[in-house]
Amino acid sequence: MSEGGGRGLRAVALGGGHGLHATLTALRLLGDLVDDITAVVTVADDGGSSGRLRRELGSLPPGDLRMALCALAAPLTGVDAVAGGSPDDLWVRVVQHRFGGTGALAGHAVGNLVLAGLMDVLGDAVAALAEMGRLLGAHGRVLPMSCDPLTIEAQVTGLDDDQGAVRLIRGQVAVASTPGRVRRVWLRPERPTPCPEAVAAVRDADVVLLGPGSWFTSVLPHLLVPGLGEALTSTTARRVVVLNLAPQPGETAGFSPEQHLDVLSQHAPALRVDAVLADETAVPVPDRLRRAARTMLVADGTVHLAPVAADDPTAPRHDPAALAAALRPVLVRPDRGAAAGAGERRT
């Protein structure tokens, strides 16, 4: 499938958790433009049900993988609430269901147990994800960024009386929830083996989307996996960075939109992107974002501002339908005949 051949785009979305869920749902809503979707998911989670299964079985943490599968399987009705599974899709609801109580199963998502079981029986994470995708009727595929569970480590300041003192924090949960300021992250093992299918998907894609999501623990790790990071910097795909709606308590507390781009550039200085997409209300000074983006945008790259936030007073999150509308004019190269979307705003 190629952009100029009258067939749909091959899109690859990288991330984890609810941010990736929103991106995948948005891509599905663009079915007239995108007909091949691959999710590449982080595998460093060490908390909750995923962390328990990882420690007990030595398997990949299944939670973010499960979320991505459900995003590709849930009916595209009521997409504002699709993270929990639409009421008319029993299997998605079951896979997302968490056991209550106080026993050994308390807190485990059914889908986490199923995925862990499939990986144990098949001995192949990619095959297990494909099998669960078939069970759910997923419209696309889900791949891990590595077939081995990884650990995130970070340099953090602001945890001592000496605010400049640097401390080492280990583990995704610890990094995501630190009250300090994250300066740099890396992976253990230092040079993990990438998932070959994920590398191939990025290289063969027409469009690659990075973000939104927990910046240091769900977005940046993809760029730190040898092979996958190189594929992201060398692919001929149109690369789009989708920024978060707000700083995340803990790992990016106090970050401006441009600081998100700064740390992305620091961790992957060779990365160049075609577009940066952000919510118009989340960027108080668009000129600052534009200046920060210059270091990583290609020559004709642009910053796009559009309303992509859901009307949710409890927590900032992307609205998949609004995100789809904002992505439409961004995904196709201008020289391939893409029409500018109505109401598109560029800075």
SSE topology:
Blueprint: E1 9-15, H1 17-29, E2 34-41, H2 48-57, H3 63-73, H4 90-96, H5 110-122, H6 125-136, E3 141-144, E4 151-157, E5 167-170, H7 172-177, E6 181-188, H8 196-204, E7 207-210, H9 215-219, H10 228-234, E8 238-242, H11 257-267, E9 273-279, H12 286-293, E10 297-306, H13 320-331, E11 345-346
Parallel strand pairs: 1-2, 1-7, 2-3, 7-8, 8-9, 9-10
Antiparallel strand pairs: 4-5, 4-6, 10-11
Main location: cytoplasm
InterPro entries: CofD, CofD-like_dom_sf, Gluconeogen_factor
Function: Required for morphogenesis under gluconeogenic growth conditions.
Characterise the protein shown here.
With 347 residues, the protein is of the alpha/beta class. It has a single domain (9-346), classed as Rossmann fold (3-Layer(aba) Sandwich). Helix content is 36%, strand content 19%. It has 13 helices and 11 strands. The strands form 2 sheets. The protein has an 8-stranded mixed beta sheet with strand order 3-2-1-7-8-9-10-11, with helices on both faces. It is globular and about 50 Å long. 49% of the residues are buried. The model is unreliable at 1-5, 80-87 and 336-347 (pLDDT under 50).
Summarize the entry for a quick read.
By secondary structure, the protein is of the alpha/beta class. It contains 13 helices and 11 strands. It has one domain (9-346): 3-Layer(aba) Sandwich (Rossmann fold).
